[in-house]
C-alpha cells in the first residue's frame, strides 16, 4: 500500500514555483499545496499517523502570570481542558486513550462532554524572535510560537501566539466553555462565534454593546454555550478591526456518522484538513483603516494566507519570500472531507480551485447540502463550505496546488474581468462554477417558509450602500474641530457605508441587558435623527419583528452607479445575520441601474408569487450580495433577542454598514446569567452650588 505523506518543502526551485507565479489568470495561493511523497506501510495502513516535520504547538494550560485566586477559580475546569493544537495533524489518528478525553473524536449518541478552552489574547509579531532564522533553514519556521505568515514582519493580534487561533472541534451535544483573557493593555475585545445561532444563550453571541460589555485589559470572560446543530463555523474578534490582524480561528461541530447523509462519499474527516483563508496586509488594520495617502491606496490585500502561511514579494520587491506553504497529506485513491473557511475581511471574493481535482460540496456554512460536484468555489468574507476531495488513483505527479482568483472589483485590476455574479457555466478549461441558487439543502423547508400567510409575514428591505463624499477638506474636517460625520478614507476621498442610507451607531450600553441605559436620542427616528449630513443619517438602527413570525429579508445592493466601471467590476457585499440560518428564496442581478424601479418589480413578483422557492432551499448565515443585484431570504423568527446584522467587509462594518434585528419584546428575551457584567456612560452631575 502506498500512502501520501505531508512535509515542509522548500518550493523555491525555478522548475516548480516560478512558472506558476507568471500566470496572469490566477493568484497562486501557493500558500497551500497538496504535496505527495510516497512511503511504504503495511496492508492495514498502520503508521499513517507519523508526525509532520512541522510538529505542533505544545498545549498551553494556563494564561501565564495568573494569581493564586484566579487559578483556584479555574481549577474545577482543568480536567476538561482541550489542547489548542488540535488542527496541527498531531491528533488526526488518536489512540483509544486520547479519545476518552478529547472532544475532537468520533461522535456517538449519549456521549455529551464538556469542552474547555483557555484563550489568551495579546499582541504579537510575524517573523518574530521565535522564528529565529526562518526560512533559512525552513525547519525553523515550524518552531513553537513562530508565525511566518508571508515572510513580512508586522504586528498582529492573536490567541495563544497562533494564527489562525486554536481550532475548536466538538460534537453536537457537547457544552463549549471558553475563558477569554485580554492581555492587551488599553484595548478591549470580544469573540463572536460566527454561524452559531445561540438559541437560548444570546448573551454569548459576543457583540460588544449589543449582547455584552467589552472585555477590558486583564479581564477574563467565560463564554458557555451548546451548538445548535452540526456544521462548519469559525470564531473571530468582534471589536474594531482585530480580525484583520489575525484574531480568528476555526470551529467544527460534528455529529454521529450514522446521521450524515453524505458519509458514504468520503473515507476520512481529519482535524487538520481545514483550509482557513485570510487576506493579508503589510500594515496594521488600524493604519490601513485611516486611509494612507501614499501607500495602500485601495482596499485590496497584499496576498492571501492559508492556515497562516503564504509568500509575497520580499522587502526590496526583487523576489518572493521563501516561507513555507501549508501542506496537507492524503492517500491516493481515498476521499477526504475538507473544511473551507473564508476568514477574509476585505472587498475581494475569492474563487478557489484545486489543481486537477474536483470538489463535491456537501455543506454550506453551518448546514448540510445535497452533494454537487464543481471545479471551483467562490467565497465572500464569512462564508464556509464543506467539500469532498478524491485522491487520484494514479497521479502523474505528487504535489497539487490550491490556488485562487480574486473576482469582481479585485480581478479587474490584474487578472482580467470576470463577473462576480454567478453563472453556473463552464469556463475555458471545462470547470463548473458554484451557484448557491442551484444547490439544494438536505431537508424540506417548513411550509411557513415556502408559502407564508401574509398575516404572519414581515417583509424587511435592506439596502447596502457605499457612499463617496465630494467636498473640500475644510468642509469635512472644519477648523473649529466640529465632527460632522465619521469617515474612512480610500486614498484621497472619504467614504461611509450604510444600510438603507443609515450609518449605524453603537449604543453606550448593551441592548440585551441594559436597554434602559441607552439614550433615546440615539435611536433612529424620522422625527429625531441623531445626526444627519448630506442625506446620510447616523443613528442606532433597529429592525423590530414579532416573535414568532416569518420574516422575509430582501438584500439589495444600492451602490451609487459609477458608469466609468463595468457593473461586474464593482464591490459585492457579504452580509451576515447573527442568531439565524436563512433559507434562500432567490438571488440574481437587476437588469438596469434604476434600483427603485427594479425593487418594485421584485416586490410585485413576490406579491404575485412568481418567485417560487425550491422545496429544499439552501440554508446559510452569510450571503454575498452581488453589486447591482439582490438576495431574497426568509427566517422563522423563533429566537428572541437583539441580533446584529452587518456587512462582513471589515472597513464597511466599522463605518456603518450594520443594523440590529430585535426579535420579540424584552419580556421574551432570556434573562442574563448571574453576575453578568454591566457597563454604560458615567454622567454624574457635579455639585453646582
Structure description:
This protein is mainly beta. The chain folds into two domains: 2-438, Immunoglobulin-like (Sandwich); 447-668, Immunoglobulin-like (Sandwich), CATH 2.60.40. Helices cover 8% and strands 31% of the residues. The strands form eight sheets. It has a seven-stranded mixed beta sheet. It has a six-stranded mixed beta sheet with strand order 13-12-15-20-17-18, with no helix packed on it. Strands 14-2-21-16-19 form a five-stranded mixed beta sheet, with no helix packed on it. The longest helix has 13 residues, at 595-607. It is globular and about 65 Å long. The termini are far apart.
Q: Beta-strand level of the residues, as a percent range?
A: 25-35%
First-to-last CA distance: 90 Å
Biggest sheet strand order reads 23-24-22-29-34-31-32
The pLDDT mean sits at 81
Find the CATH topology of the largest domain.
Immunoglobulin-like
Q: How helical, in percent, are the residues?
A: under 10%
CATH superfamily of the largest domain: Cupredoxins -  blue copper proteins
Number of E-type strands: 36
Question: Which second-level CATH architecture of the largest domain applies?
Answer: Sandwich
Summed up, the domain count is 2
Radius of gyration from CA coordinates: 25 Å
Main sheet characteristics: 7 strands, mixed
Structure annotation, total helices: 10
Given helix and strand content, the structural type is mainly beta
Q: What form results from the Cα inertia axes?
A: globular
| CATH class annotation of the largest domain | Mainly Beta
Q: Which stretches of 5+ consecutive residues score pLDDT under 50?
A: 1-25, 27-61, 412-421, 427-431, 470-492, 527-533
Pfam families: Cu-oxidase (PF00394), Cu-oxidase_2 (PF07731), Cu-oxidase_3 (PF07732)
Family: Belongs to the multicopper oxidase family.
GO molecular function: copper ion binding; oxidoreductase activity
